[in-house]
Input
Amino acid sequence: MSTVKIYDTTLRDGSQAEGISFTVEDKIRIAHKLDELGVHYVEGGWPGSNPRDIDFFEKAQRASFTQTRITSFGSTRYPNKKVEEDTVLQALLKTETQVTTLFGKTWDLHVRDALSTSLDENLRMIFESIAYLKKYREEVLFDAEHFFDGYKNNPEYALKAVKEAESAGADWIVLCDTNGGTLPHEVSRIFSEVKKSLSVKMGIHAHNDSEVAVANSLNAIQNGAEQVQGTINGYGERCGNANLVSIIANLKLKMGIDCISDARLKTLKEVSAFVDELANKSHWNQQPFVGKSAFAHKGGVHVNAVRKNALTYEHIQPEKVGNHQRILVSDLAGKSNVLHKAKEFGLNVDDKDPKVQNILSSLKEAENLGFQYEGAEASFELMMRDALGQKEMYFEFIGFRVIVEKRKEDEESISEATVKLRVNGVQEVSAAEGTGPVNALDRAIKKALVKFYPELAEVNLYDYKVRILDEKKGTRAKIRVLVESGDCHSKWGTVGVSENIIEASWQALIDSIDYKLNQRS
Output
């Protein structure tokens, strides 16, 4: 079986999509998730472009990754500038990543109109930048920007540009369809022709403006690409990038090409949903391979057929990518997922235990109310523990109150929260102020409990996301709150849903405390 390296650019290209903005903590969590998936390269961002990416690389250096090589991204030097004085190249060196990707112009139109420099100077920019970085990096990749457009317009110059990169010592030459306008048959022809002129390893980077980014990527691999770049769920600027979820599944299951292990392939749906959740986007139900509807069958001939033989209307076994068949008229699926999660959480559950059905019923009821547990694994574990009778009660809820007061137009509002809890029969009343109502509530909860459970002092709130579930209802809409908490050992996600944002936040915050305390047992 041949192999292909997976290069993910969700954290850079994906974050350039309209409506997506990852925090540094989001990016670190996604990077770890991609590492678990078995992705070979994770492009963290462009350190010369914004402080957030600089912060990411500093945190990534202190993190541990088993499979993934964190990669920095930037451009070749500016025209008529020395590499030692170029701000982009110097910012890249400060990241101390083992791998760096440089993009450069290969379309003569871009050289003249975008860079406003000569064709020869652009070739020097490519050579000098790569040669300079190769002194300090284990791997340097060259992303040949707009290559297919450039090759169609001026094949001789486009080829010269990538040959310069090869001569300078680039470890990979990646041909980019940056405008997303190239069709699959063109990619096959051009990639095949260029590969004959290069001895260095090659990759493909496709955008989806013509709805063929996945097809273009697979065609390039058929013609010799050993690396494929893309994003989870196809996020990216304009119409997005090549969807790595579909690419990985097609490589493994349709083309017999190795890229990640079979075991990791089974987490593909989970990774897709995780990135959606942190991007604060609704899951695309019809997404191939991993969508909720990808293996759903509704009535009539289809249901009758798949019950006899799933192959009649399913192109793969859905379990191979972590999905499952759904019969919508009776919704029979789910038991295996619950058992898998129980094992993951270290809970002993017999597959014949009637409590498994209790978990399924609780899950379906919660999802009907708007709960989603991708990105909120701690809340799901608590729900399972509760259904199995294995959830410890460390405190009882009595009540809470939140006051937001603004006294003058030019002064900031004041938020104060009061909580009433009972611990071991003792009622505890605690009040705290915060920078907002949720922060005040978080402080008040911990203030009430920390004297009983000192370990809660080390629990911090790292991230807080709000999603409106039914926009048409306006300010009466149901709201889902996703909270990420953590201590010095780990981080965990919890969720709450209500028409009241404070109530939803309370649910997520209490789950966070409950999860921490239940790790004792």
